[in-house]
Amino acid sequence: MIIVGLTGSIGMGKTATAKMFEDAGAFVFDADAAVHALYAKNGAAVPLLRAVFPDVIVAGAVDRGKLLVHLKKDTLNIEVLESFIHPMVLALRQDAIALAKVEGHEVFVADIPLLFETGSDAHVDKIVVVTANAAVQRERVLARPGMTEEKFALIKSRQYPDAQKRAKADYIIHTDKGLSHARKRVQSIMQEILGK
Question: CA angle, 41 as apex, 11 and 111 as ends, to 5°?
Fold first, then answer.
């Protein structure tokens, strides 16, 4: 089974692209969805977060707004959070890889926003970077509910620059050229990866 790391900065179109890979027959693991599950009511990360930031737990789940207050207050808090969340996500990814093998998938796509930042690029066979021009990215991100310029800046500060990611990619998908273009690119990447 070929393991593909799918990444790109916030607002570049990873989620839509991951769905295209799934439609093309790949098994897709979504790191963001894994984090949401860890933060949900009775999620595996809840007890740890309760111990570190007690006020962020509301009705048994992580209140992301309250957590963001801590992360903005001190960047060390981000490092503390990542020190236990990233290993938990990695364990879930390993479980997903095992399941994909059992199900007979030839391609496993790990949708990981922080692929390079977490060193996960060392554990994949191919890297796909999703990109768009900065104006499109900004428009997409600021259209999200609850997003602010400050939050966008904080997220971007934790991510490698887009140009740096593209320089490390085996494949690049430009999502600002339309869905049809992106879908064709996904299909050609899948065919190339599978040697067809």
Answer: 30
The SS3 of residue 55 is helix
* Distance separating alpha carbons of residues 77 and 9, to the nearest angstrom: 21
The CATH code that applies to domain 2-193 is 3.40.50.300
The span from the CA of 73 to the CA of 69, in Å, is: 6
Residue type at 127? I
The pTM (predicted TM-score) of the whole model is: 0.86
Q: Which amino acid is at 26?
A: A
Going by DSSP bridges, is the β-strand pair 61-62/107-111 parallel, antiparallel, or unpaired?
unpaired
Residue spans of the domains in the chain: they are 2-193
Q: If we measure between CA atoms, which residue out of 7, 30, 4 comes closest to residue 114?
A: 7
Q: Where are the alpha helices (DSSP H) in 40-178?
A: 46-52, 64-73, 75-102, 134-142, 149-157, 162-167
Residue range 114-154, pLDDT digits in tens: 899 888 999 999 999 999 998 999 889 999 998 888 888 88
Note the Cα 113 to chain centre separation in Å. 3
DSSP state of 159: S
